[in-house]
Amino acid sequence: MAQSGTLTVSNASIAYGKDKSAVDGVDLSLSCGTVTALLGPSGSGKSTLLRAIAGLEALDGGEIGFAGEVWSETGQHKPPEARRCGVVFQDYALFPNLNALDNVSFGLNRLPRPERRKRAQQELDGVELGHRAKAFPHELSGGEQQRVALARALATDPDVMLLDEPFSGLDRRLRNELRDTTARALKDSGAATLIVTHDAEEALSLADTIALMTDGKIIQVGAPDTLYLKPTSLAAARLLGDVEYFDGDVIDGHLQTPLGAFDARAIGNATKARALIRPEGIAVGAGSSGGVAATIVERRLAGGHARLSCALETGNVVQARVELTNRVDVGARVQLSVDAHFVSVVTAGSAAS
Ligand code: ADP
To answer: Which of 33, 42, 78, 197 has the most CB atoms less than 10 A away?
Structure first.
């Protein structure tokens, strides 16, 4: 089991060229026993940050440390092998000439040989692959290869586990199955874990904490449901799913929108504000149910739900997500009402919103 402690990234920056930093003043804390997802679009700097924590990239500014010990700062750089860090790369990076057991035991060279094999076998059992110990990478499916890579990284009992898009090469069904095994193995390890992903669903289902990254910066950190329901900016909201938004001035502690007035007391009067509304929070009722009148202009299936495009009398069109059994069809006159749990009112107009 990993020791207790926290990996701390403070004001970390990495610039490949002169113009723009790939990682730009990032602060992040990862505690042992917790899983953090680093979620952001392609090119936002996620892998660069992961590589910096692993010691594969030097910092141009700031600091990375674990439990009070400096790992990276300008002019000082602990080599990767001196960090108690396990890494699962996107392509798994297994040794093609070694079987699964030997891949896992590779990093255990400090142990005597019989002990090494026993430990490697335990790690393979831990990811439900004990029976494939003799198989070579080319004989394993993508999902099995991922689990061997996970077992290899966990075998050294790291304090910090880093996974770069660990499910990206796999089909959706397999991904869902693997997520559970991976989440369990990571929890059992007690390591401070960072999973880099561009997949919101993956981040929401796997992580205790999500850090949202765009343009080299962390824009919000929090528990998955808090981030989903109370994003602090449109950019953060969009990283986690569909969102409707309306801008306006705060008057008497409220922001008036075409979908009704929302509490904006946390934002000063006469300030420009923005209401961010998740589609699941928009209930679609019968024509007489009370609410905001709308007409359904489109109905599409999305996952296990129906997505309804609803035209308001103001001319705005909003998306609502309803159960498939809610059989409202195109042309139906309906009433929309919004559940305030799915609304986040934030200050608008700033660069961050
Ligand atoms: P992500 O993992 O979020 O897709 P990356 O960390 O890979 O993002 O990349 C962040 C930015 O840094 C991108 O603009 C990318 O082009 C640039 N970058 C990444 N690695 C290098 C490199 N070795 N040399 C130059 N630029 C790089």
So the answer is: 197
pTM of the model as a whole: 0.92
Asked if residue 264 belongs to a domain, the reply is yes
Percent of residues, the chain, with pLDDT higher than 70: 98
222/284 same-domain check: no
Return the C-alpha torsion angle 178, 34, 221, 250, nearest 10.
Answer: 100
For residue 22, how far is its CA from the centre of ligand 1 (angstroms)? 6
What does pLDDT average to over the chain? 92
Whether 188 and 264 share a structural domain:
no
Atom of ligand 1 nearest to the CA of 48: 6
DSSP readout, 271-300? -EEEEEE-GGGEEEE-TTSSSEEEEEEEEE
- Residue 66, domain extent: 6-236
Ligand 1 lining (C-beta closer than 6 Å)? 16, 22, 40, 42-48
In a domain, 353, yes or no: no
Position in ligand 1 atom list of the atom nearest CA 23: 10
Total domains in the fold of the chain: 2
